Amino acid sequence: MPSALPIADPAPADGLLTPGPGAGEVPFGVYVHVPFCRVRCGYCDFNTYTASELRGVRRDDYAGHAVQEIRWAAEVLDRSGVPRRPVSTVFFGGGTPTMLPADDLVMILRAIDDTWGILPGAEVTTEANPDSVDADSIATLERGGFTRMSYGMQSAVPHVLATLDRTHDPERVPLVVDLAKQRGLDVSLDLIYSTPGESLDDWRTSLDAALACAPDHVSAYSLIVEEGTAMGRMVARGELPAPDDDLAADMYELADRTLVDAGYAWYEVSNWARADEQGGPERHASRHNLSYWKGHDWWGVGPGAHSAVAGTRWWNVKHPAAYANRVLSGESPAAGRETLDADTRYVERVLLAARVRGELTTAELGREARGRVAGLIARGLVDGSAAVRGRIELTLQGRLLADAVVRELLD
Q1: The Radical SAM core domain covers which part of the protein (predicted)?
Q2: What is the pTM of this model?
Q3: Model confidence over 252-274: pLDDT tens digits?
Q4: Domain segments of the chain: what residues?
């Protein structure tokens, strides 16, 4: 079943916030969670539902419920005294957003634009499975204002896809990439490595297949076997081998070497974008995901979606039926919330910004943490020349040990 929500303070029914100093001064984005999937992948721990799990709500009604929350959200922010800002990024995630008709996704996007306004040149992304879109749906999305497609490729190797319970034909990936490019959309491919039974040669095959599509952006995530998932149970019973940490490190190094050689540059530990003329990834980096890592504000729409605005973070009730009941009654769909104090904001800033190339400055670190930077440089985990310029930039070895670097900076 989907993962549990965090335990925190109750969320008030009116959803009102108490903004602190500087509220409304950072960019504002919108995340839309579409929690529907055709099948549940064995490794997935996201808040998703197949048709048989919906109980009491219809998928066809979801777009209307999302629009209801968007309109209600604007009223809450106005009544809370949070200044209105136009939206700089929009991201439809899931689940599989393209399980909904493209017209429904466009309707939700139009509601966001009508409510807050979307900045010219804003990044508007939807995730999609390769078998959930076609030429007509992609054209509808592009005409409706979408600028970017993020395809869940995961692997190009049939036995790896089977272990992941992915049902798409890997030969369809280049087709849908080409369809998106024909409409002028940026394209990202999501890959997973360290799947049980996956070899280094399998991973090389997937990287080569992804690069043959010439995407603008590649994400590569090491598989985490979550408790409570079908895969987690299979690993616990010994039916599948647990991922091997050393092999996962070899796979990451292969990914970085292969992508850099092909003209991509890393900008976050698990993300690479096609380099521009100056060799930087800025043009094709995921601006929406960067907004999370940089601590911007966003409103999360949909069941289980998380939001962070003006120093308060909250998350919606998980099930689509419970979510629908809340938004249709004009009540906050939030299940819980927390207000971030200065210490928590500092920890999260270091935790997230350290993963982004050059985002964390040495000036932001506490005195003891600044004193540890030299040791991290000596151990080959932090780039010394970047540190001289006042920036924390992980080396390749540092990216492999990013959690350890963060712990040292925070201890």
Answers
A1: 22-265
A2: 0.95
A3: 999 999 999 999 999 999 999 99
A4: 28-293, 341-411
